Amino acid sequence: MIERVLVAMDGSDLSERALRYALDGHPDAEITVLHVVGGASPMMGQATGIALSEGGDEGIQEAAEPVFERARGIAAEYDAAIETVVEAGRPARQIIDHAEGFDVVVLGTHSGGLADRLFVGNVAKTVFQRSPVPVTVVR
């Protein structure tokens, strides 16, 4: 039985579909939404700028809040409560690191356009290949 579900959200429509899929498919499970600030660039993209600025932790939380607000709104449609977690760094690595404590990971197939896939890489593919728990990829 699935008791704990980790849903990776990046603010894209596909990540919102992933949350809806998790809420539909696992209505009695504890759902945690993970948002990773920053991309998988050699210079760590947005995460580096936030970490080096004043109030790094506050900046990271602030960057995640729009995604979490949308996630809470979707959960409210299902009359469900969700937990939220924000991390900075490489999305695939953070998702894989967090997966250990869950029964399944649910995420969208990709986040953005071609540029995102070229520069960030295929997060879904990496998570699917390396996750210690089953992964559901929603499109």
TrEMBL record:
UspA domain sequence ranges: 1-139
Matches recorded under InterPro entries: Rossmann-like_a/b/a_fold, Universal_stress_UspA, UspA
User: PANTHER family given for it?
Assistant: STRESS RESPONSE PROTEIN NHAX, UNIVERSAL STRESS PROTEIN UP12
Q: Name one Pfam family in it.
A: Usp
This chain's protein is named: UspA domain protein
The record's comment on protein family reads:
Belongs to the universal stress protein A family.
Cited CDD domains? USP-like
